[in-house]
Amino acid sequence: MSIYDSIGHVLQLDVARKADFGYFLTDGTEDVLLHRNEAQQDLELDDKVEVFLYTDSQGRIAATTTIPKITVGEYEWAEVSDVKPGLGVFLDIGIQKDMLLGEEDLPVHRSVWPQTGDLLYITLRVNRNNRIYVKLATDPIIEENSVKATRADFNKSIHGYIYRTAKVGSWIFTAEGYKGFIHESQRKVEPRLGEKVEGRIIDVKEDGTINVSLLPRKEEALDVDAEKILSVLAERNGAMPYWDKSMPEEIQNKFQLSKAAFKRALGRLMKEGKVYQEEGWTYTKRDE
Q: Which strands, in side-by-side order, build the sheet including 275-278?
């Protein structure tokens, strides 16, 4: 295997020559430069050194003694370091040069592109011009690296990262190693590719994969909805022209709630003695 065939891989080479700016390494046939700032220690002629080969910004083969966890064929999580519209997103694999995930491999809608700090499960690929690019993990790769959930995991809280996104739903790889699906009805907004999300397991399939909901549990949702109502009342000095017989459209526009959710939250607040209704209005109950 020639040095060109080893781009994106780790291999052992010999120090053939030294220069002020670095070392020329050889496999016995071809040479490659290890720049001095890419060497973790001083080297001598004929030393054997383990390096990772990559292509620099000019397309030249270069070596580094910093060995990344992600190499061609090896998958691992990497953090998004930069986003460049027209190019794609760059990821930090642990060496000085960040790696590019091209725009053509990203979602069509930029609103679900990864942002700086998001994590993607990736490997590297080398194109015909010997340049290295990022390759996202596909479903079979996620499946191969996942563990199976059991029925005992039902309703457990989980967190993980989105590895695939579509209008119908999002696919998640959890911290436990579960492969999961989030149907569009189980999320308020479509998560970004690479975004960390928290949810709960709402189904465990026979194959050990899971269905996940990002929506709050009913009790948590009730708390949030009740807070929305109290917030509007506070803004209006304790009185608002909305009650349990208001039109669904009015409720949706003002509170972003369905009428059923509004009535549940309002009923709870009335039961707790925090609000009362009178002639089409809702009032905050004042302490006597």
A: 239-240, 281-284, 275-278
Cβ-based neighbours of 57, under 8 Å, separated by 6 or more: 97
Of 27, 42, 64, which one is at a domain's C-terminal end? Answer: 64
Residue 259's H or E segment, with its range, is helix 259-271
pTM for the whole structure: 0.74
pLDDT digits (tens, 9 = 90+) for 117-134: 999 999 999 998 888 999
Mean pLDDT of the chain: 91
The mean pLDDT of 99-114, rounded to a whole number, is 95
Vertex 68, ends 66 and 73: CA angle to 5°? 140
- Confirm if 8 and 75 have CB atoms less than 8 A apart: no
**Phi, psi dihedrals of residue 31, rounded to the nearest 5°:** -110, 155
Q: Which of 86, 107, 136 is the last residue of a domain?
A: 136
Q: Which domain holds residue 17?
A: 4-64
Q: How far apart are CA 209 and CA 186, in angstroms?
A: 16
